[in-house]
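Minutes, project huddle
Topic: does the predicted pose make sense with heme C bound?
PN asked that the exact inputs be recorded in the minutes so nobody has to dig through chat later. Recorded below.
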Amino acid sequence: MKRILVVAAIGALAAGAMVGGTTIAFAQADVIKQRQDNRKAAGAAMRAIKGVIDAKGDTKGAVEQAAKLKELELAFVKLFPAGSDKGETKALPAIWTNWAGFEAASKASMAAYDKLAVAAGSGDMAALTAAFGDTGKTCGACHDKFRAKAN
Ligand code: HEC
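Predicted holo structure (tokens), as shared on screen:
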């Protein structure tokens, strides 16, 4: 009886390991998609803020988008597990070899989003326009170092 249980347990372990392998492959494709969707949303938020600036209306229309950018950024850096440099991704290996640098680039963007939020709340369109430009530079700074130009 005991012996049968042990054999059954080993069988279950082996099956689990095989399923586990497939799960990891799926999980990586998944996490790559999640971080790309995250960045698409960041792009959309930036376009929405540009829309507020172009419309020369109330800067407060950008408050929510600035908060959204911050929320997205907090989630973004958690989407780079080891091994997710492989696949349909433009994430460069430098992210994993220079994680501190990658985090610093993300923090620089976070600081820019804070200033963007303040400017958006201020009613001062010139301040919002300047903060928007500065934010865009922090996006570009990370891309220059950590994102491939082409696949
Ligand atoms: C800390 C680094 C970092 C910051 C900051 C950053 N990005 Fe990116 N971005 C990346 C990386 C890495 C990728 C590639 C992700 C992948 O392909 O797995 C990317 C991809 C993108 C993409 C393409 C998404 C797709 O696959 O369709 C867009 C759009 C984008 N970023 C916009 C932005 C905008 C807008 C900002 C600033 C508001 C920003 N990013 C800030 C690192 C960053």
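Observations noted during the meeting:
- Confidence is low (pLDDT under 50) at residues 9-19.
- The two ends are 56 Å apart (CA to CA).
No decisions taken; revisit at the next huddle.
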